[in-house]
Amino acid sequence: MVDIKNLDAPISTKTIERNQFDAPTNNIYEAISVVAKRAAQINSEIKKELIEKLDEFATHNDSLEEIFENKEQIEVSKFYEKLPKPHAIAVQEWLEDKIYYRNTKEEA
Q1: Structural domain that includes position 43
Q2: What is the sign, positive or negative, of the torsion defined by CA atoms of 40, 43, 49, 54?
Q3: Residue 108 near residue 35, CB atoms below 8 Å
Q4: How many Cβ atoms are within 10 Å of 35's Cβ, its own excluded?
Q5: Does the residue 33 lie in any domain?
C-alpha cells in the first residue's frame, strides 16, 4: 500500500542516470518492466482510494434538476491532482530499493 501523505517522489520530470536505474538488474529493459508493473499497481491503489473518498460525497438521487457544488469533494480532487504521478512514485521506490522483484527464468 502506498502512503500518499509521505511521498518524496518528484512532481516534475527528473533525469536519472541510466547506470543507476538499471544497476539492480543489469538490464535496462527488465528494470523498466519492473517499474512499469509497480506504477500500474500504484495507479490502481490511488484510483481505488480516490473513488472510495468521492463515494462518500455521492448523492444517489435520479433527478438531474440540481447539482450542488461540494467544496469537500473539490478539495479531495485537488489533493489527488497534486500528487506525484504513479510512474514517478514507482521510480523513486525503485531507486530506494523498496521494490521486491525476482527473475523467475533464472530460478528455473
Answers
A1: 16-55+69-103
A2: negative
A3: no
A4: 21
A5: yes
**Amino acid identity at 80:** Y
pLDDT grade, residue 11 (50/70/90)?
Answer: confident
Query: Helix, strand or coil for residue 42?
Result: helix
pTM above 0.85, yes or no: no
31: DSSP letter: H
> Cα separation of 58 and 86, whole Å?
26
Domain count, the chain: 1
Q: Could you tell me the three cell numbers for 14?
A: 527528473
Using H for helix, E for strand and C for coil, what is the string for 18-37?
HHHHCCCCCCHHHHHHHHHH
CB 79 within 8 A of CB 14: no
Please indicate, yes or no, if residue 8 is contained in any of the structural domains: no
